[in-house]
Structure formats: C-alpha cells, structure tokens
Amino acid sequence: MRKVLIVVESDGRQITDSPTVKKMLSAIEMAKAEDATQATSVQVIAANHLTSQDQGIEFQPWDLQTSSQLQEIIYCPLTLALPENLVLPFEKIIKACRDVCGLRQQIAQQIQVAIGDGCFWLPVVLTAKGPLYGEVITLAEEFNGQKLPENLLLCDLTYYQPFHLSDALRQKVYQIAHNIICFLSAPPATYLVQFGLKRSEMYFDRLWPFPTAPALASVGVQQPDLFTCHWYCLTAKPILDLTIIPAAHSGFRLL
C-alpha cells in the first residue's frame, strides 16, 4: 500500500485548514481516483511529529521501484521547517531554501543575478525529462506593496495568474530560474522562484521547493494546476505541457 505524508509546519487548525493544504489534498485525491490500481492512504502530519517510524523506507520519491513487502511512503512537504535529525527525501533542497540569506548570496555569486525582495513567482515544474515553465504569478492589485510574511501559508492574500512578461524579460527569467535549479541539483518537483522586478531587471528573492500559497492562482487557470503538477512529479507521472485555460487570458497584465 502506498502512503502519502503531507508534512506541514504544525498541527494547528490554521495550518491544516489552509487553502494551500486543502488544494494539495484535493489534487492527490483526484489523482488517486484516476489510478485505482494502487491503494493509497493520505495523512497530514506536523513536521515536529515526524519520527523515525514515519520514515518507513528510504527512497527517492520519483523512483517507485520498491519491494512489495515494504510500505511505499511518498513525502509531500509543504513546509521548510523539517526536523534536522531525520533523513528525508528533499532534505537537501529544503535546507538550502530555508536559508534565504545564504541562498541569495550563493545565487548572487554563482549566477551573477541581483538579489532583493519580490512579489512575483515563476512556476518551474521539474519533471524527470526536464523543466516546464508556467506563467508568472503575482499579488492581486489590492495587495501590491504589502510586506509578505515568512510563511505564505498563514497570510490571507490573493494571487493572480497569468502575469505576462515581455519576451526578452521572460527569457531572462527562464534562464535564471534554470540556472538556479541546476545549481541546486534540484529533484523533480514543482518549484516557485520568487523574484522582484524593477526597470526590467530581475531580483532573486527565494526558492520554494513545493507549491505554496501563490500556487492557488493556478487552480482553474492553468492545466494541470501546480498542485496536480507537484503530485505528478512526486509519482513520476508524465506532464507534457502547461497551458493557460483560454478564459483566463482576459484582463491579464503585461510588463
């Protein structure tokens, strides 16, 4: 039997009832319905409640060739606050993303990109065959200029997709995102590259190694949405393309 552990920061109702966690659960439930050949249980668990017993078997989440006698566990962290004493898939990339200041400095030195705060997110769906780039997400106009909290799951904000960039700026953002993903040797997953823009210059802010709150903007707008993409990456299911549903093009903003 396959067991999915959605790991959140705490077991408080504010976290477990967040729209982001609910959408991740919904994406997994829909995927389960598509694949009735394998029984799958899903559990939301607080990071501080993880124990060695929860580790089951150690394996890469995109490599599903496990013994039938062992329980297959797929970890789906939606938090950067993982315990230091457990060896889990994504541990290295999550640790790198948790050190926001350190990662900024590394990216500035290694990739020669400016760093700074930002409220734009580029989705990068990294499949086993390579990256797919989604349309940029940004804050809805009424929240422009608002300071973002460290934990996006806890803020009551609205996000917007697609935010269209000029072709030249789009290619620049894609290239920088690709370089960051390669530099970190990132495993297959759905990533959000958070960045800022000023006078057509990109500023790297941070990297989210899972679909956090801004990914909500993709639901009903992008096909497949970013939560479904993340689940497909974790289970090595192919994703051929990311498309914006035609009705979602109305009222887009351009930079």
Question: Can you describe this structure?
Answer:
There is one protein chain. Helices cover 27% and strands 27% of the residues. With 255 residues, the chain is α/β, with parallel strands linked by helices. It folds into 2 domains: 2-92, no CATH class; 100-254, ATP-grasp fold, B domain (D-amino Acid Aminotransferase, Chain A, domain 1, 2-Layer Sandwich). Strands 4, 5, 6, 7, 8, 9, 10 and 13 form an 8-stranded mixed beta sheet that branches. A 3-stranded parallel beta sheet has the order 2-1-3, with helices on one face. β9 and β10 form a beta hairpin. α2 (19-34) crosses α7. The chain starts with a strand and ends with a strand. Mean pLDDT is 82; it is low at 52-69 and 250-254.
Secondary-structure map:
Blueprint (H helix, E strand, L loop, with lengths): L1 E7 L4 H4 L2 H16 L5 E7 L5 H4 L16 E6 L13 H8 L1 H12 L2 E2 L4 E8 L2 E4 L2 E4 L19 E6 L2 H17 L5 E10 L2 E8 L13 E2 L2 H9 L8 E2 L8 E2 L1
Helix pairs in contact: 2-7
CATH superfamily caption of the largest domain: ATP-grasp fold, B domain
Task: Give the tally of β-strands.
Answer: 13
> Nearest-angstrom radius of gyration?
18 Å
Could you tell me the CATH topology label of the largest domain: D-amino Acid Aminotransferase, Chain A, domain 1
List SSEs in N-to-C order: EHHEHEHHEEEEEHEEEHEE
**Looking at the structure, what is the overall shape?**
globular
Q: Helical segment tally? A: 7
How many structurally independent domains?
2
Mean pLDDT: 82
The amount of beta strand, in percent, is 25-35%
Euclidean distance between termini CA atoms: 48 Å
Question: Which architecture of the largest domain per CATH?
Answer: 2-Layer Sandwich
Proportion of helical residues: 25-40%
Structural class comes to: alpha/beta
Subunit arrangement of the protein: single chain
- Main sheet summary: 8 strands, mixed
Poorly predicted runs of 5 or more residues: 52-69, 250-254
Using the coordinates above, name the CATH class of the largest domain: Alpha Beta
